[in-house]
Amino acid sequence: MTDLFDNIHGKRIAARKVTGRVRGLYIASGQDFVTQAVDKLHCDHGGIIGDHHYGMTRRAGGREPWYQRGTVIRNDRELSLISLEELEKIAAAMGLDAIRPEWIGANIVVEGIADFTLLPAGTVLFFDSGLTLKLNGLNAPCKIAGTSIAQHIGAQNEAVLALNFVKAAKYLRGQTGWVERTGAAAASDKVAVRILEQICYAPDWSA
């Protein structure tokens, strides 16, 4: 019997599981995206309770050019996640000693998950304390976060450093995600990562 995938022009990658660990939790309890460290995050289906980005819906912006700006859409960016390893790579590429996750609005910092930013959309994260998140896909770096870094380190030229962040953080900026199962995440949690089977979409457009 011919395998269904014999005629697929892309690449098939089997599902797998990996594990990591929480290295920091943060909430944006003020009027902007900058976060503050906490020991625990409590989440329902709107995201982190009390967070600046909390809500079942959000307004479309520059990341959704197919909608008129301000259109109400589902909030698939309830949380911002980044790995410690990739944050260190960004800092090194920018010639900085360190970049604090708070400066760029991170809610969860993980460790031990290779190429975290490149995990496919739909990957599911299970936290020991009960929370389950579904990743929405890589988080493209922006000049707003870069400007925040510049302001926190007292850079003389904020515009130049902001642009440097956009370049240095490409494919390293982490992920956005939303709450699939309500619950909590604690600073001591292990994270079980379930990566779904992947079929790279690569049709033969010349056929």
Quick tags:
3 helices; 3-stranded antiparallel β-sheet; alpha+beta; 207 residues; 7-stranded mixed β-barrel; globular; M1 Pyruvate Kinase, Domain 3
Question: How would you summarize this macromolecular structure in one to three sentences?
Answer:
The chain contains three helices and 15 strands. With 207 residues, it is an alpha+beta fold.
Secondary structure: elements and pairs:
Layout lengths: L11 E2 L2 E12 L8 E3 L1 E5 L2 E2 L8 E3 L12 E3 L4 E5 H10 L14 E4 L12 E4 L4 E7 L4 H11 L4 H11 L6 E7 L1 E4 L3 E6 L2 E2 L8
Parallel strand pairs: 8-9
Antiparallel strand pairs: 1-15, 2-3, 2-9, 2-14, 4-5, 4-13, 6-7, 8-12, 10-11, 10-14, 11-12
Helix pairs in contact: 2-3
Uncertain runs are none
What share of residues is helical?
10-25%
Number of helices: 3
Q: What Rg is obtained from the alpha carbons, in whole angstroms?
A: 18 Å
Number of beta-strand segments: 15
CATH architecture: Beta Barrel
Task: Describe this entry's structure for a reader.
This protein has helices at about 85-95, 145-155, 160-170; strands spanning about 10-15, 15-25, 35-40, 40-45, 45-50, 55-60, 70-75, 80-85, 110, 125, 130-140, 175-180, 185, 190-195, 200. It is an alpha+beta fold and about 210 residues long. It is globular, with a radius of gyration of 18 Å. The protein has one domain: M1 Pyruvate Kinase, Domain 3, CATH 2.40.33. The model has no long low-confidence stretch (mean pLDDT about 95). A hairpin with an 8-residue loop joins strand 2 (about 15-25) and strand 3. It contains 3 helices and 15 strands. It starts with 11 loop residues before the first strand and ends in an 8-residue tail after the last strand. The strands form 4 sheets. Strands 2-9-8-12-11-10-14 form a 7-stranded mixed beta barrel.
